[in-house]
Amino acid sequence: MRFLAILLVFLTLNCSSKQKNKQPNIILIMADDLGFECIGSYGGTSYKTPNIDKLAANGLQFNQAYAQPLCTNTRVKLMTGKYNFRNWTAFGILDPEEKTFGHLMQNAGYSTCIVGKWQLQSYDPLGYPGAEHRRDTGMKISNAGFDKYCGWHVGHTENKGSRFANPTIYQDGAFLEATNGKYGPDVFVNYLNNFVNQQKDNEKPFFVYYPMALTHDPFSPTPDSSIWSDEARRLDNEPQYFGDMVAYADKIVGKIMSNLEAQGLAEETLVLFYSDNGTHQKIYSKMGDKVVQGGKGLTTQAGIKVPFIASWKGKIKKGQQTNEFVDAIDFLPTLLDVAGVPVPENFKTDGQSFLPVLKDENTNRRDWVYMSYNPKPGAHKEHLSPAEFVMNSTHKLYADGRFYNYKNDVLEAKSIDAKTNTEIQIKAKFQSILDSLKKYPTTGSIERIAPELDSIISKHARIDVVAQGFNWSEGPVWQPKGQNLYFSDVPENKVYKWNDLDGLSVYLSTSKNSNGLAIDAEGDLILCQHATRSVSKLASLKDTLNPVYKPLVSHYKGKKFNSPNDLFYDKKGNVYFTDPPYGLGKKDVSELGFNGVYFLSKEGQLTLLDKTLARPNGIAVANNGKILYVAESNIPKPIIWAYDIVKPGVVKNKRVFFNPKEIIDKSTAKQNPDGIKLDQHGNIFVAAGNGILIISPEGKHLGTINTGRTTGNCVFNDDYRYLFITADNYLLRVNLKPFSK
């Protein structure tokens, strides 16, 4: 008997020791489209949230918690601990090469589980412009670092099904059957609680990530709605049901907390309740007598300020509130801190752990939030604009120069000048933060000659130096697939590839001294090559050193071209190109005896359009296909010509569209007319003088993008937000549109 008693004590002590040394469990709940104004503990009076309020009463409420204005932006930031500019690819996409907090928590010894909304593998529907380049390029839920999963929207958008009534749910490798009549959030919370219950006797701690489906639209009835009994009405979509959805989200939080208590796990489990962005703009809620419109998608407080509550029985003091700043990037390092493991040396995070705040310890965390926000590319995000800003509890500075006291001007209606010493100091501090986190330095300036330019280029647009160190950069072309820019370094015999995520790389090490570039209808790269004096297609590319080119055209009437320089594909697949003498050098003599402007039909028929120009250079066709523009880089007589296109391969009515001689004469760079591009409104952007001249379709000079150096060419990205410029040894980018709010 004595032996049994001793054994019992030993086993009890041993079990107690294991329990004591076990890492804490963590449950991270993230509501969908639920702003702070909806929660009772934050002062919301429109909805009943007793369980979330109880969470706050028993834990710590953060009054300065922020998220990105849209869900994917926050989810990518939250799961990777990085600012969006470091790993953003497209809406609804998480780069499959990234490591998530799921992977890191697995490595820290945790059993991991995710339930709820995924939406990070594929988003754009079939037929949406550019969708073919982005569909199914994201991370699969099964590869995201979670041992168990139960998710909605795990594949293509058009197949996602309902998240609420009669849900479509993918669970541990298979879609659930017999979900008709069920409610998605119930399936999720039941799976979550079952997972927790199965871990009770597991020596490993658990980490659960629960990105809720509630309270995102469609605004549909819940099982607690009076209309739920009518099965035909369960998929209704009316804002009147939003209150029911908030109440049900709160009910689910209550179920999670009650289950932890029932399993005796409350003291071993940290529960974090957060939200991915503000409430939908269709929803109006009250905080006492104050009406607050939802701000999802906007960078005002209603779009980015969210509820965040931490509860840990016996570990966090009850009923505390804090004004410490928390951003989505902070969760990953905090999770690892709670787990008692460091952030891996080879892992980059921008976040700061808020564990000391939970422990009520002194901490020296940042007192500001920085956001890099880009809602695109992605379906139905055209109405939203990127933004970049720094803010504290009173002021906000956007990277485009707008400065607000949002405490006094919550809707950011009027930008202010920094006049007081406090404002001057805040703005200077914010600017230094922006500069330190800005991916690219700036250069040059924008000269505004006519008021119309303000509708073309944002008043606060900046000229970013996105890459540099070239001999003479030229011929940029934008490829929507992959969101890549290609451009030539003519003397160095290279073509470079650049994108905002991966930066710069050599694409072709032997480009045959290419200049102008284009992308044809099949997505192939087309090059004007000085060395071969031809227009060629990149037929294959084993590696950067071994490209294979297929000449499209190299002779006119049996005689070799001089030096094809720039080209333009019209909407029917025909090519217009120029053939000046630049690539001939001093020794070679033109076989043709003239410098031409040509038309190459998609069937391969070549037509000479004009042989009277001294140095034809940049070339472009008007958006309506009726006017051909050609820049003549003739030093004594620089002209931008216009021709009427009668039919493919036939032009007439040659005339001076714009004479930039006076501008060039007054410039420092003295650049003669070079590359030409047109924006979506038909405005002409031409390299000349000190940079890029912007000329209206009527021939009025509206302004100049002064690059501060000789400038060769430019190109727009696919949504015309950005203009890329090749200027001497620089690749530049101008954000033409204003940032959003």
Please characterize this protein's 3D structure.
The chain is of the alpha+beta class and 741 residues long. The chain folds into 3 domains: 25-365, Alkaline Phosphatase, subunit A (3-Layer(aba) Sandwich); 387-437, no CATH class; 445-735, 6 Propeller (Neuraminidase). Helices cover 17% and strands 30% of the residues. It contains 12 helices and 43 strands. A hairpin with a 2-residue loop joins strand 35 (639-647) and strand 36. The termini are far apart. 49% of the residues are buried. Substrate binds at residue 565. The active site is at 674 (proton donor/acceptor). Belongs to the sulfatase family.
Mean pLDDT: 93
**CATH fold node name of the largest domain:** Alkaline Phosphatase, subunit A
Rg, nearest Å: 30 Å
Oligomer description: single chain
| Count of discrete domains | 3
- Strand percentage, roughly? 25-35%
**Global geometry:** elongated
Largest sheet: 10 strands, mixed
Helix content: 10-25%
Q: Number of helix segments? A: 12
